[in-house]
């Protein structure tokens, strides 16, 4: 992690995002510690951060990644879908898909921004009662823009 002259964290992917943020699980930190992001996944993640998450952060302020990449064991532990996009390149159904769950202080503002840009997403799930968004980024299946409210 780099620190800028103002003492704020600087990301290694973009100004405000670092790879370590996508290897997270609040309930299972030991399983999250086993996550390895491959060079190909890092390239995809860099694009996701540069062209989507950083602009969203610039618009709404601080964003917290609550779930990024998962190992199979972590996915089972959190009761994730069998072929969850959180498996990233280990997903046999949608190779190349990336999923990220995020939360922020300004949920209504973020929701508006996300809906306006849903065509850049494979899938957007809005969990209003749990106060987070599931962002599914496209794989090679040409599915874009699906919005679900849960």
Provide structural commentary:
The protein is of the alpha+beta class. The radius of gyration is 15 Å and the shape is globular. A five-stranded mixed β-sheet has the order 3-4-6-5-7, covered by helices on one side. The protein has a two-stranded antiparallel sheet with strand order 1-2. The chain has a single domain, classed as Muramoyl-pentapeptide Carboxypeptidase, domain 2, CATH 3.30.1380. 28% of the residues lie in helices and 21% in strands. 30% of the residues are buried.
Please summarize what this structure is.
28% of the residues lie in helices and 21% in strands. With 150 residues, the chain is α+β, with helices and mostly antiparallel strands.
Q: How many domain regions?
A: 1
Number of helices in the DSSP assignment: 4
Task: Predict the CATH topology.
Answer: Muramoyl-pentapeptide Carboxypeptidase, domain 2
* Major sheet: arrangement of strands: 3-4-6-5-7
SSE succession: EEHHEHEHEEE
The CATH level-2 architecture is identified as 2-Layer Sandwich
How much of the residues is beta strand, in percent? 15-25%
Structural class: alpha+beta
Quick one: biggest sheet? 5 strands, mixed
Q: Note poorly predicted spans.
A: 1-8
What does the overall shape look like? Answer: globular
State the distance separating the first and last CA atoms.
Answer: 35 Å
Mean pLDDT figure: 88
Radius of gyration: 15 Å
The CATH class turns out to be Alpha Beta
Number of strands: 7
* Percent helix range: 25-40%
What's the SSE blueprint?
Layout lengths: L1 E2 L5 E2 L18 H4 L6 H22 L2 E5 L4 H6 L20 E7 L2 H10 L6 E5 L4 E6 L8 E4 L1
Parallel strand pairs: 5-7
Antiparallel strand pairs: 1-2, 3-4, 4-6, 5-6
């Amino acid at each position: 992690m780099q620190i800028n002259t103002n003492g704020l964290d600087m990301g290694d992917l973009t100004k405000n995002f670092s790879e370590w943020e996508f290897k997270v699980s609040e309930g299972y930190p030991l399983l999250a510690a086993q996550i390895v992001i491959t060079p190909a996944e890092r390239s995809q993640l860099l694009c996701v951060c540069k062209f989507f998450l950083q602009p969203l952060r610039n618009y709404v302020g601080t964003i917290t990644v609550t779930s990024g990449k998962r190992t199979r064991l972590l996915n089972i532990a959190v009761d994730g879908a069998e072929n969850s996009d959180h498996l990233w390149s280990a997903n046999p159904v949608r190779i190349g898909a990336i999923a990220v769950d995020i939360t922020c202080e300004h949920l209504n503002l973020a929701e508006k921004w996300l809906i306006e840009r849903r065509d850049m997403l494979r899938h957007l799930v809005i969990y209003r009662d749990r106060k987070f968004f599931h962002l599914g980024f496209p794989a090679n299946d040409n599915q874009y823009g699906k919005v679900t409210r849960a």
